[in-house]
């Protein structure tokens, strides 16, 4: 189903299912399946197998999630052709060095059992223990290894995650190839407008992680009110909202019925409701206590 609302970046129209084209011509499905916090072994294998059976063709993992081998086995056992599944993994945020980055991608490929990934991302601009610190030099070194991987077709596209405008500007100034993607936290009430606008006006596709605020938006009364007018669940409304903002959502669930629900997005949120949702704040119940690393 085609969504008439134009991508805020200008040129691309997002559809509820389908593909977008990155600057290097690589096609990316407009709905991904997230795997953070799904343990390696049966849990990750079963979740990814069920997601592929439900029709997802875009899987998001990371070296840091520790589940690449189960994700890879599920893809291999799915019977799908390699070129029909878009696979993303990520360079650990702590690696800010050329050779260690090249080695880490090899380890990811070995764990996944793949000859290449479709998208390889720097997981964060800083090690998780130093959030906000300036690692521009280290990012440029890691990025050079990723440019090499792209040239050698080990990664069909390369990008970043959790990068702010200043992180991106420094990386772009120091590199040959501009990131094709920035994966950032994006849900109703937390749309990171400055970085989203920057990416969308510089042809960097935005992927939205935690489109359900890791589950903590699901009881929001304002969002529920809008969802009801479409006879849709809060999860469906949240995921569709992200798509209509020109961002690729990456919802995670280990519940097969929810996988089907979250991919059933054949409806259009009106401009009036989009504006209402754009104006919401404090939509998520904040988590307290230590947060697991994303
Ligand atoms: N780059 C980064 O730094 C970064 C950071 C965070 C996340 N990510 C990526 O983004 C993905 C998604 O983000 P996320 O894991 O934070 O979570 P999310 O997709 O925002 O929310 C997942 C939570 O919502 C629940 N849920 C899913 N669909 C539902 C439905 N239809 N009805 C009710 N509950 C539902 C899930 O429960 P059940 O599983 O129990 O069904 C789970 O508790 C991650 O898995 C990862 O791939 C990337």
From TrEMBL:
Record GO terms (molecular function): oxidoreductase activity, acting on the CH-OH group of donors, NAD or NADP as acceptor
Catalytic residues, chain numbering: 65 (proton donor)
Domain NADP-dependent oxidoreductase, residue spans: 31-280
Residues marked Lowers pKa of active site Tyr (site): 90
Binding-site positions, substrate: 123
Signal peptide (UniProt feature, chain positions): none
Keywords: NADP, Oxidoreductase
InterPro entries: AKR (IPR020471), Aldo/ket_reductase_CS (IPR018170), NAD(P)_OxRdtase_dom_sf (IPR036812), NADP_OxRdtase_dom (IPR023210)
Family named by the database record: Belongs to the aldo/keto reductase family.
PANTHER family reported in the protein's UniProt record: 2,5-DIKETO-D-GLUCONIC ACID REDUCTASE, NADP-DEPENDENT OXIDOREDUCTASE DOMAIN-CONTAINING PROTEIN
Protein name as annotated: 2,5-diketo-D-gluconic acid reductase
Organism this protein belongs to: Cellulomonas soli
């Amino acid at each position: 189903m085609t969504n008439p609302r134009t991508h805020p970046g200008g040129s691309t129209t997002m559809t509820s299912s389908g593909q977008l084209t990155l600057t290097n011509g690589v096609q990316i499905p407009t709905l991904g399946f997230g795997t953070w916090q799904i343990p390696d072994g049966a849990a990750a294998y079963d979740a990814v197998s069920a997601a592929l059976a439900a029709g997802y063709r875009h899987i998001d993992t990371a070296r840091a999630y520790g589940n690449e081998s189960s994700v890879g086995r599920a893809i291999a056992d799915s019977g799908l052709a390699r070129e029909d599944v878009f696979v993303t993994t990520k360079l650990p945020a702590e690696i800010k060095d050329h050779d260690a980055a090249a080695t880490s991608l090899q380890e990811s490929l070995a764990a996944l059992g793949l000859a290449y990934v479709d998208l390889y991302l720097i997981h964060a601009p800083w090690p998780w223990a130093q959030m906000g610190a300036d690692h521009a030099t280290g990012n440029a070194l890691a990025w050079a290894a990723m440019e090499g991987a792209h040239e050698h077709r080990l990664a069909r596209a390369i990008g970043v995650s959790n990068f702010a405008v200043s992180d991106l500007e420094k990386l772009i100034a120091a590199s040959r190839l501009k990131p094709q993607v920035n994966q950032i936290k994006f849900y109703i009430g937390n749309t990171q407008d400055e970085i989203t606008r920057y990416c969308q006006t510089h042809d960097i596709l935005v992927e939205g992680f935690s489109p359900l605020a890791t589950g903590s938006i699901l009881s929001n009364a304002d969002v529920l009110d809008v969802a009801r007018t479409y006879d849709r669940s809060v999860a469906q409304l949240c995921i569709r909202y992200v798509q209509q903002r020109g961002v690729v959502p990456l919802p995670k669930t280990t519940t097969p019925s929810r996988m089907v629900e979250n991919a059933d997005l054949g409806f259009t949120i009106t401009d009036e409701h989009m504006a209402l949702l754009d104006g919401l704040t404090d939509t998520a119940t904040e988590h307290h206590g230590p947060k697991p690393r994303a």
